[in-house]
Amino acid sequence: MSDAIVKVQSDPSLANIAEVEHDHIPVIEEILSKKSAGRPLTPEEFLSLIQFVDRVERRTVEQKKAEAAAEKELVTAARADIPDAAFDTDIAVLNLPDHVYNILTEAEHRTIVI
Question: pLDDT in tens for each of the 114 residues of the chain?
């Protein structure tokens, strides 16, 4: 549970989540401090921890999905500008140095557009 709060506070890519959770973070820190001191938590405090972690995880997943969709859109747009022939043209026509050609073919990249 403390991992979630550390991640939100230290990971710049989660700054928007930290902003949304701004009011909850001090409460969660207080509960975690109480827990680490070995003091018992109330059911409400335990529920607050669970809900915080759930919100952070859900928002993180949503953010990653949005980033992946944006990246896919960029790739699709970039590929739209590439002539169809490039997808079928063997990399051998590029006269690459042998070591580069070998690396690409070992990675199973056979055409100009990977």
Answer: 667 778 788 888 788 888 888 899 999 999 999 999 999 999 999 999 999 989 888 988 998 999 999 999 999 998 888 888 888 899 999 999 999 999 999 999 988 876
Provide φ and ψ at 97, rounded to 5°.
-55, 150
With 0.70 as the threshold, say if the pTM is over it: no
N-to-C CA span, the chain: 41
Contact 48, 28 (CB under 8 A): yes
C-alpha–C-alpha distance, residues 48 and 32, integer Å: 11
- Helix locations, the chain, DSSP H: 2-10, 15-20, 25-36, 43-80, 84-88, 98-106
SS3 state at 111: strand
